[in-house]
Amino acid sequence: MKHFRLLFLTLLILLCNTSTLYAKETPKEDYRLNYVNINWWKQYNDENLVNLMMKTYENNQDLKIATIKSKQADQAVKEAFANELPYLGFSGNIGREMPSATTRFGNLVIPDYSQTRFLLPLTMTYEVDIWGENRLKTKSIEKQRDIIKQNERASYINLTSEVASNYFNLIKLDKLIKNQERLVELQKKITEMQEIKYKNGLCSTVEVLIERQALTVFEEELNDYKNKQDTIYNQLIVLLGERDAKEILRNTFEQITLPNVPESINADAIAQRPDLIKAEDYIKKIGYDVRVARKSFLPKFTIYGQAGFNAYNNFSHLFDSHTFLANVGILPSIDLFTGGAKLAHLRYNKLEYEKASEMYEKVLLTSIQELNDSLTTAKISKKNYDKSIERVGIEKEKFALSEKSLNIGSKSQLDHLKAEEAVIMSERAEISNKINYLISTINLYKAVGGVDYNNLSKDNENI
Fold first, then answer.
1. pLDDT tens for residues 108-117?
2. Does the domain at residues 2-18+34-83+129-298+334-452 carry the CATH identifier 1.20.1600.10?
3. Quick one: how far is CA 377 from the chain centroid?
4. What are 373-432's pLDDT values in tens digits?
5. Which residues of 122-156 are buried (b: 16+ CB within 10 A; e: fewer)?
């Protein structure tokens, strides 16, 4: 009996110090850095862009929320796994019994009495998972955790892509503003010259009004560019998660490096997309739920037991040999009638499985479409950029000819300024097309699931 008391005290100490039963988790490498994919952003050869990505990784609140949800999902899996294990609990009871009526057991008469009862039992229950139902429930929650982790990964891909797009748009607006300021200055000179011509009777009032009108248009466009610059700047501050940021360091338009876009991308590229992986995981999760619903019709077997000490009136005798009590048993159970609830739940999960399959097919088709669209857009954007460069080159050649004509006196200064204005206006298209091409490469990066599409393996089947 002394062994029983020693065992009881040992279990009691362990129950009071359950935290010592769990080993400390070893620190792991931060997987979120893989989601940021710094190596991909380095190919743009822009240190400021990489720094912004790190700031987003460290400070963005949406990313932190996504990570917290992922950690919560990990705890949900641990909680589900704990339900597969036996339960061991301690529930003591100290009470005073004071029956006021005579109690009879046949010829035995127990008069009024009062006594103090001390009960200190350990209780254990364990549902034997014969059919694997509890294991399937845990697997279902594990798949739900995997889905949440893909949501986290998608958040990192989308937010870092948005940061990069806003960053390049900010550079574009820097350049467009400088370009537009040159246009405004030129148009002011052209308007002044036109007014001088009008005063000298060399042009009509309409011609002066046309130049004034053009000036107001250029000034209005300049204001719009500045407004867009402020808006994107503020959006970028929010994405960076820096409330007190004073300045966003960035490269100039001329320092931008253009990445290459492949002519074709392997069809397997979409396999890394978070939405496609989520759809696959959801099918697996519902598959587990269907199996759980089927097994719910089977009987359950619970092992239960209790061991402890039970004493009356004298607490000092609580751990005496004659006060020890114990019981153990098996409790089989089965639901005989539930009003069709279990059958309805099974049918519901089967229909959900069919829906999940259709959702997967839709996500698959959408993924292929987005990849095709992104790749086509990137190619067309590159072609448009090349054509805009060609067009700027033509305007510069015309401007050079205009300058020669000006030098020999066959062309007026006013016409020469308009030729220069045409060059600057053609540069606006070049600026926009260059940034549009950059952003199209970012959209293609998102379409393949946040991986480097240049390193994807190729086979005979391409998209």
1. 877 777 777 7
2. yes
3. 25
4. 999 999 999 999 999 999 999 999 998 988 888 888 888 888 888 888 999 999 999 999
5. bebeebebebebbebbbbbbbbbbbbbbbbbbbbb
Tell me the C-alpha distance between 382 and 166, whole Å.
Answer: 19
The pTM of this model reads 0.84
Ramachandran angles phi, psi of 4, nearest 5° = -65, -45
List Cβ<8 Å contacts ≥24 apart for 310-319: 310/117, 310/118, 310/119, 310/120, 310/121, 311/117, 311/118, 312/115, 312/116, 312/117, 312/118, 313/115, 313/116, 315/118, 318/118, 318/120, 319/5
Q: What are the φ and ψ backbone dihedral angles of 310, each rounded to 5 degrees?
A: -135, 120
Element at 312 (helix H, strand E): strand 300-312
Helices (H), 17-85: 32-36, 38-42, 47-59, 61-82
- Name the token pair of 49: 């862009």
CB 425 within 8 A of CB 337: no
Q: CA-CA distance, 414 to 424, in Å (whole number)?
A: 16
